[in-house]
Protein: DUF7144 domain-containing protein
Organism: Agromyces ramosus
Amino acid sequence: MAGPRPGGVTLVAVIAWINGVLGVITGILLLTGGAAADSPAVTTAAWVTIVIGIVTILVGVGLLRGSNLARIVATVVFVLNLANAIWTMFAVPGQFWTAIINALLAVIGLVLLYSARANEFFRD
């Protein structure tokens, strides 16, 4: 970590934390809501959601600490979100504007993580 943490990196990290916490809460609610008892698929989805939520929280912590690995993981997620948004624009026309918003958020996240200030921050 070579420089002060840029506000954009902090923003992406805080959003990751919020997303991760919401994922963990969602998974717990799925497990305790009664639906999981009736369906192994719901139980599996709940545990996967909890694990992804925990990983997302850890990525947020890593971003705040200047971890390049966390930036790479976040980049992969943003690129996958962007690809999914582009696919959704054409495959599900009723979700076109939602897909546009998701694509813009992914691009904004990438720009924030790879700005000149962010590059300096993540430099080893």
User: Anything to note?
Assistant: The mean pLDDT is 90. The first helix runs from residue 7 to 32.
